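Hi all, a correction to my earlier message: I attached the wrong file for DUF952 domain-containing protein. Here's the right sequence:
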Amino acid sequence: MGEYRAYSLKNEGFIHCSTLEQIPKVVAAFYQNQPDLLVLAISPEQLQSPVKWEQPQHPNPENATLELEKETFPHIYGAINLESVVFVKPLQELLNS
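and the right structure:
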């Protein structure tokens, strides 16, 4: 059916992910000025690549918020097979619901 490979998979070795509860904090920390973002909901049971829960590595440590540093985030170590995608929604639609 196909797969999704984020730019970070090549550069960092994994795809950054968040839980639904973490999305508002991640958007505030990293994506405030990026319009038209999409959210993919992924079924871990259907995902073929391994997932590791890890602390974030902020690209600019001096700007890191302590709140995010205390959490762990799902990192997908491989492509996201499209069969595992439950839905795709615009970020703003998800935040407004």
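Sorry for the mix-up. The mean pLDDT is 89.
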